[in-house]
Amino acid sequence: MQVIKVDPKKCTGCHQCELWCATEIASVAKELAGAINEEPQPVPRVYVEGKKLALQCRHCVEAPCLDACPNGTMRRDAETGLVYVHEPTCIACWMCVMVCPFGIINPSPTYKVAIKCDLCRNMGYPICAEVCPTQAITVEPRQDYRKVF
Amino acid sequence: MRYVLIGGSAAAVSAVEAIRSVDKLSPIDLFSDEKTPLFSRVLLPYYVAEELSKPLLNFRSADFFEENKVTAHIGVRVREIDPQSKTAAADDGNTYAYDKLLLATGGNAIIPKIPGVDKEGISPLKTMQDAENIYNFKGDRAVVIGAGSIGVESCISLMRRGVRVTLLEQLGHVLPTVFDDEAAGIIRNLIEQMGIEVITGERAIEFTGNGRVQSVVTSTGEIECDNVILSVGVRPAVELAEKAGIEIGMMGGITTDGGMMTSCQDIYAAGDVCETFDIARNQIFINAIWPMAVEQGRIAGSNMAGQDKQYGGSVRMNSIGNFIGIPAMSMGVTRTDECSYADEECHFQEIKKRTQNTYKKIILKNGCIVGAIFIGVGQTQRSGIISILLRRQIDVSDYIQALMSNNLNFMDILPLLRRYGDKFTEPEYKELMDTGL
């Protein structure tokens, strides 16, 4: 399974990933100047907060958001193993928000839909990794920790 | 191996998925007394409100049973199970043999013993049939009895359909099991602004009417109405278990061990029907909510298929969603006196933060979170961080400021998680701990 890795030695906390995630995925304009002036403001799916480290959905092995979703809107892609929101059926009950241990599911007040990283599954390659100026964000296979411990 | 699953909602479906992740071939027979398969019970108020049509109530695709090679007996009730001969007798006239059986029979709506409660136009909201009845209610005046989650959501659903609604609650405030009185006050204001009449501290004494309900007599007055929704709670549906001699606990649910097995060998229970260890209350409790049913179903299913998984315990969690216009949620206990087995050694703390329309409260017992309430935009997004600290019972004494901050974020509490690294062994946590931040 491929997941996003962030190298803390390279991450400078520049917020480029946030900016481009919001522009590319969430904005109507799809270009920066337009996105910045848009109302409602586009919401990114990656957060650089507290420390110099970009934080996205971890795509947990046992994902609490999958358990909590009462109508199968939160799904795991059978092929990639990634967890994503099937937006058309989201009823904005915020159960997933309440159980996400990383706090990275955003309850969109405007569109009544839960917003979270899906590794840009409709684009092929995550935009945050593409735009990171120091290549701190990379896509790598998930390490199997059960073998380590 | 032959599996028989009784129930067709969250716990049973989750058990199917767990069994099939290990055992691809053994026959599974699933029985559901609901005629409609795979609909999500918690969405019924959305159906009544005309926000979701019937197909959108499904929580798995229509071919779920076929895909998982499950023989689904939809609309078939199991009459009796015999643990001696390991068989289940269904009302289709057949008897089914099992090696492992799951009781995921859920709960029954409580019908209060109030004179006239059997009149026409009075219904709980639990089954699809109930939802259809309420959807087809005639008249423009309704009373909802009981201001729990389903009660409040029912009110708003009917109000959106143009019905004038009165919400009647016998306790002092709305959502008594979900919020403290301060949070409930915010919610009450919001639903009153929608045009719903809220009466608290009053009981329904009688339903009048000739065949059909015409009014609800309360302790101080009388409310005219065409319809009544009863939402005074659910009780575990333990009839089958009782008849089979399976142990029922103090709270009225089926008792389970750490692997979700009942007192009877090879019979498991999961979901609203069973009692589990409540982490926040530190006692056995029934937490009849969707996410716990899914978790318990997964543990039960895995163990039925030969694995050895232990359930870490349950926690009550409720989110009122977009029904009231702002996000509002709570988890664990809402007041310190809900914690049992407290002795003089126990030190409780309540920390609150309040603005006009937002509210946040966490309750600590000996430094560990046992309850939390979040109301309003900005307060709810990071509530999941609190939920994981609650479920793993982490001492947060020196992180209270960070947890109450409006800028609460995961990276700030990462050092705390690392301190309790043995409780966070999953790869998704290890990946972040490895960063050394």
Give a short synopsis of this structure.
The complex is a heterodimer of chains A (149) and B (437). Chain A has 6 helices and 8 strands.
Describe this structure in words.
- The complex is a heterodimer of chains A (149) and B (437).
- By secondary structure, chain A is α+β, with helices and mostly antiparallel strands.
- Chain A is built from six helices and eight strands; from the N terminus they run E-H-H-E-E-H-E-E-H-E-E-H-E-H.
- The model of chain A has no long low-confidence stretch (mean pLDDT 91).
- With 437 residues, chain B is of the alpha/beta class.
- Chain B folds into three domains: 3-41 and 57-107 and 234-304, FAD/NAD(P)-binding domain; 122-230, FAD/NAD(P)-binding domain (3-Layer(bba) Sandwich); 329-433, 2-Layer Sandwich (Enolase-like, domain 1), CATH 3.30.390.
- In chain B, the strands form seven sheets. Chain B has a five-stranded parallel sheet with strand order 3-2-1-7-19.
- In chain B, a hairpin with a 4-residue loop joins strand 4 and strand 5 (87-90).
- Chain B starts with a strand and ends with a helix.
- Chains A and B meet through strand 1, helix 3 and helix 4 of A and helix 8, helix 9, helix 11 and helix 12 of B.
